Amino acid sequence: MVAIAATYGYFLLFAEFALLELAKPWFSGELALRPLLTMLCAGGVAGSFLAASHFRLDRFQSALAGGFAGCALSAIATVFAGRAELWLTIAGVGLSLGWTTVTLSAGLRSVVGAKRLGLWCGLGTGLAYAIVNLPVAFEATPVVQTEISAGLALLGVWAARNMHPGSVEIPARERLNWLLWGLIFLALVWLDSAGFYILQHTPHLRAQTWTGSWILYGNAITHLVGAVVAGFALDFQLITVTAGVAMALLAAADLALGGAAGTFAGARVLYTAGVSAYSVALVYYPAWRARPLLAAALFAVAGWMGSALGIGMVQDLHAIPAWFVGIAVVFVFSSLVVSGIQRRKSAMLAAMVIGVFGLASGKTRADDGMIARGREVYIAEGCITCHSQYLRPNVAQEILWWGPAQPLTERLTETPPLLGLRRQGPDLTNVGNRRSPEWQRLHLIGPQLLTPGSRMPSYAGLFEAGGSRGDSLVVYLSSLGPETIGQRMASITKWEPSANALASAPNERKARQLFIQLCAACHGPEARGDGPLSAKLTLKPPDFSHDAWRRIAPDDSSPLTAITKIIKFGVPGTTMAGHEYLDDADVVNVARFLSRLHR
Amino acid sequence: MSSNRDRGRHADISHVVARHTFGWLAAGNAVGVLLAALLVWPALNSALGSWTYGRWIPLHLDWQLYGSCALPLVGVLLAWCVDVRHPQAVGQARIALGAWSLALALGGLSWLSGISSGKPFLEWHGWARPLLPVAMLFLWSLLSAHVWWRRDQFSQAGCAARIGLLIVLLVVPNAVHWAAGRDVYPSVNPDSGGATGARLLASTLGIVAIYGFIAEVLGISRKNRRAWYWGYFLCSVLVCIAIEHGDASHHETAQIVGLATLLGWLPLAWTYFGGSNGEPAARRWWAAAFGWWAALVLSGFWTFLPGVSERLKYTNAMVGHAHLAMAGLVTCANIAVLVELRGLKALRHFWLWQGACVVQVAMLLALGWFEPDHWDDVFLAARWTQAIYAVRLLTGVALLGVSIVWWWQSLRGEKTENAGAS
């Protein structure tokens, strides 16, 4: 367990973080680091195959101890290396890490046996993730992280010296052949690396995922629990279920990164648990097979190449295309279904991922570049002229409509702050928590289609072929305040229409007039879900004359209040936008009108 | 004693200043009318291609600020510093003003192209960022050269005053360039997202200083009120220095009291300028300017107060307040200055301008007052809001028409009768 924790901890803390941070001063820009990553990858692959070709069970202890010692030495050397020496030390890191990983995988079963192999893998992997996520390690300087990693490697030397390998039991039967497993793990690592890169390079996502002691402790616990549970499952021969669950969690998290679910805050747990689950399986599978060459091939193809492909894809596309996630999901679940075991569960998981998050929800975009470009478009088009991005903390009305307020100090860190002078339209401080990317796009193309009477110009020109200005603007707007969705939901939950509004007499004529003006474009003039824009919506509006309420439970004690909340605040994460500026009487009036239409 | 030729050259320079001033006033107002029309008929945006509403706003704001509002002050500097004995003096002033206008025109092009800093009134960005500072430096060089040539004409105090002013003016282009940077932002009232009391006080004292200085240069101030004017100015500056300069709220007593000191300028400005012994044709413009000044100070203080600020911030009331300052106070004061400089004959349509301004400002203030209770009407273009915007458009057309007439007058060379021949 200590050896697994040391290997994985070294990889996560040093190879993925500290090493790159130490190299940055010598290489300006992300892309300049690519050759270094290639060197690391090449070293890793070489080390893996070298270890596989030289593996002998009787020399397992010394080989493993040597690998750990190499890891420790190359880590320490990196701290003192100049630009030229970095190439050597990075190659050394890759070589020794590849060697250690394959050696450990190939000999692990001989040390702990097959019965509890999954549990030990889960504990070791979970412990590594937990250590790395502890604030003391996570928030340390790169040099300190390197020292911790070197310490872990030295711990690995100690563990290796105290191992007592026995005989190896070769597994009787494989459910899937090794090639298919290689591809499954490749897809998992690819998705993980791409998602990880986006999280790391998108300030608000990074803040949601890794900022603050509580979040880090939470991550550590989630990792540990997820890994141990996965380990138990593996010991019960549930490797297909483990891989399927990991795939579902990672795909859901990657889709949530692009705002399909409005925010990543909730998906953070999915991502963390998904990573733990597949990581344990990735350690377990080659250890269970106990074949050095297989371990080398798996780590070379799935581990090193999967990481490089995932990071490279996001660096170039600035996104995880939804179609890619879809293909990955379909491939992995098809492969698992082929095994003939857990078919129903696997299919259900796939359906859950695709159904809940919706592959057609657009690309998952979260890169800084796109947001920055969108902000430039916002400035160039003079959006600041009509839209503020500042909520006054003492004005309850605007906090309710567009809140929560954000501290001034935070707003002033932007260059330049776009506080605005005038509100010809709503405040946009948190527009990302109340308008979906799909709504933004439709609204920018034809504001009067969605909001008849709006004085906003059409920005259809931004979306013309060959340009990305419109999409960038949508991404920028969607990046405004999605992290505040929790506070907004709390505020919506608390809100109720005023007693006066509830007591007011229904005014069918005015309600119909408002419905036609504000709702008919999507819902249709008779609320049959056939408005002119409905064909452009991913989630079609319901036909109120036939369909059941989607978001109101049959036993809801106050369906009218529930409808008023939807009219006023919309349904966050969907294209159903709120009409925050309507007064309570109008909202109640329209809600009653809709209740009468609904059968 | 100035010769007729010298007076004529002074008038010629002022005349060139008037042409540029009214040219930019008309241009700024034309953009204002376009903006007002786009609010009434948003569909017109489609006819403008990518030059939609938001891209025109900087042209309206900055052409007024750096064009029609700033250029008469440039005229005062030219009158104070330029050596009209120099045979090329008028031509040089023409080039300096041409460079200034070219900077504004190119700036407008850059904003229409979407190149903007994103900071209202300081949109100079990218290749356009150095344009105005360079034009300012060119003007500064011209003024410095002429002060040097004229040094034998000045008294010791007059020479020192000019050199002192030139040193201060050297800061301006650098300050404009620096302030246009995206990483520079002034203090903000955390409870409104707008200016703090200290900032409002400082900017208003800047106006007080500029017009006080102009009155001195033009010789139209009451000598026996000078001590009161500048004494109170010094006290106000001390108050401004004393109050919080960071991100202070309008709920803080010191900010309110500091801004309240501006009320003292109502009697002081009246008594300082009231005995104007300058051009008779300028008097009614000074009187109108004072009326607008009183309205500006009172409304500015009122809208800053807790409760009122919460209601009016981000509404059309603040747009009305800005129009009150620019179309009301500054335009009237600057026309008075141009008349005093003898670059203009009495301008036509005084009452039409004042009337259109009053109606427009009143309508915008009224709309702003009701907006917080009827945001839905504003966002969805309810009829009553359309009606007010239509009135705004009509008054805007009136202001544009008058400014075109004024420009036409300046182009035709209608100077004051006692100005000499060029």
Describe the structure.
The complex is a heterodimer of chains A (599) and B (422). Chain A has helices spanning 2-23, 34-54, 60-80, 83-112, 117-133, 135-138, 142-161, 178-201, 203-210, 213-235, 239-257, 267-289, 292-317, 322-338, 343-357, 368-380, 396-402, 408-411, 437-445, 447-450, 469-478, 485-494, 499-503, 508-518, 520-523, 559-569, 584-597; strands spanning 319-320, 364-365. Chain A is mainly α and 599 residues long. Chain A has 4 domains: 1-167, Growth Hormone, Chain: A; 176-290 and 306-361; 368-488, Cytochrome Bc1 Complex, Chain D, domain 2, CATH 1.10.760.10; 495-597, Cytochrome Bc1 Complex, Chain D, domain 2, CATH 1.10.760. The longest helix of chain A is centred in the first third of the chain and has 30 residues, at 83-112. Chain A is elongated and about 90 Å long. Chain B has 422 residues and is an all-alpha fold. Chain B contains 16 helices and no strands. In chain B, helix 7 runs antiparallel to helix 8 (226-242) and helix 8 (226-242) runs antiparallel to helix 10 (265-274). The longest helix of chain B has 37 residues, at 4-40. The radius of gyration of chain B is 21 Å and the shape is globular. Chain B starts with a helix and ends in a 10-residue tail after the last helix. Chains A and B meet through helix 16 of A and helix 2, helix 13 and helix 15 of B.
